[in-house]
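Lay summary. Proteins are chains of building blocks that fold into shapes, and those shapes determine what they do. In this project we predict the shape from the chain. Here is one chain we studied, written as its sequence of building blocks.
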Amino acid sequence: MSRSAPSSPVDDKAFLLEYRCHPLRPEPPSPTGRHSSTTVPDATSLLAMGCPPGPEPRRIVLSTDSPAALKVGTQQLIPKSLAVSTRTKHNPCRHQSSASSREPLSPDPKRASVPSLSLEAEEEEDGGGPLKRNLRNMSYRAAMKEPGPTNAVSSLKPVSEESSAVPAPSPGRSKRTFGRKRVQKRGGSFKDQPRLYQEIRERGLNSVSHESDEDLLEESIPEEPSPAGAAIVVQSYRPAQVTWSQLPEVLEAGILQRICPEERKRQEAMFEIITSEYSYMHSLSVLVSHFMRSEELKETMTQTEHHHLFSNISDILTISTRFFEDLEKRHQEHLLIPDISDIVEEHASNHFSPYISYCSNEVYQQRTLQRLLATNPLFKETLKQIERKPECGGLPMISFLILPMQRVTRLPLLLDTVCQKTKACTAAYGAATRALKAISKLVKNCNEGARAMERTEQMYTLQKQLEFGKKKPFPLISASRWLLKRGELYLLFSEEAGIFRRGAGRLCYLFLFNDVLIITKKKSEESYAVLNYATLDQVTVEKMESMDPPSPPPSKPGSGGIARGAAGGFLLRVVMEKDSEGRREEIVLSAETLSDRARWITALMHREKKPDTTPKGDLSQVEITQPYLAKQADEISLQQADVVLVLGGEDGWCWGERLRDGERGWFPQACARQITSRTAVECNVRRMERLRIETDV
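And here is the predicted shape, written in a compact code that computers can read:
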């Protein structure tokens, strides 16, 4: 620790840092509240009195942390840069309370002009004193290396403590206190700073009820890294910040003290439907105003493409606005919301029909967007410019286009939460159940409309692309037929002499429908020559181990394609008891990956439904952390917060059943997170069973 020489002058521009602890010579204050000017005579006074000046006390102390420094005195000098760099936070309450008990130790006008700095005012309530002092030491070393200008002290002015006086701080710091401070700061209204619907996650989607809904205020949901080439990038999913119990009017009215915890949770569930509808409406308005009505974007496509892309989204925005206005009116009329189930039932039954049209157009919407992005550079560039706008939150347009499907499928879960928080055998519970059934019926109609439109359009397209040639034509178009899976596999050979002998060792393209398997040779993207077909009741499939590859066919020995398929592929054997000509045919196919083989086997065996002997509660469950759009017929589209029962998996892919409606399909494991809580798993199963009974899904 370095000290100055006794005779060195004191810099008038240095800062004084006062300590209340370890005083050398405590002096009682004068009756006027000021220290006596004669208690500590300075050097000038001693000379005037004829007394020789004694050695000046060593007051220049560069270390503020050591016990030796504390014994020197109550005043220590520190560089100006140190005071500036460490005083990043100011707590007026603590400063006021501590400063009121201290007075300047010297009437020196030069020292009186220096503002008093309190160490205690800088320390956090969580006991961060030693950490702060370490930071001060580091700041001092930095200040000594790069000293600031000497005339910079004059720019600092003392702040009047009377002007900074604020009420005393709350007794404790907690998540609840933080949340309410933020709410009061921004006015306490969820409409002040609306968030995009893509950025929120309704607490009503959770099946496990938290003891306190405010516990989720500060709950941070870890962001999952987006895979390369992901179509949808979501910035952050967090719970809505404003809850019903945090509203200033609710706090001022003292309602929380008059209602039971169960009623409070019911109010929170209903209020969340209102706030999330507002965020949803806000995102729809961004889609309409910045994307659909953009003249620059409209000029890059035809009128038909524009209609396929946006469909009737304006009607969706209109009905969402009316729905929110009715909900908000109920909330404004009654601070303690009596019920909103009647409003939900009325709109779901009589006003939400545009959702069915929008969902039915989904297949055209996705195809149009993919084609424009792949073949229209001007459209792609214009779209990127719009997506960069601050109002769009840096989100792609596809995340806005799928919002109606997301909202309509989340509403049943939010209504189910209201049912759970409502006392059974009451009028409110009956109304909530009716609203749940009405919105679930709407979801069912939306799913059926989208599925029917996709299947019909698909059958007509494939009927034109398949060329049967000399084979007996197969009537493909049927209302009860749909595509399960399509794709390329490597045809190795046929174990018995037949029509596949000539095509052995080549790629073939399979179309698997719910009742027939068609094997073709791909001629172009729009044309396929049919090699053979068989109804699925005549088809069996089994997995072949790679360690026992089949022998190559007699013809074309040593073919490079055969060697590739036998050595590097994953094999499966398909037996057609009666093919298109009524003969038995057995072929060996090779898939490039384990997951591809598993998906083909699952699709080919879909008719052989085995009874589910494993209890639902014993199956693994995952929660979807980022949306996934199905790219193939055997995949399932999932939304963030969906819960899926995992029925199987292979090589990074999962085969699962969506809890809310029982839909099954494959999805990448990277977009899901396993649910490890046993309580959550059991609650999810009970909720699934209840929803399927009450809504007849």
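What the prediction tells us: The chain is about 40% helix and 15% strand.
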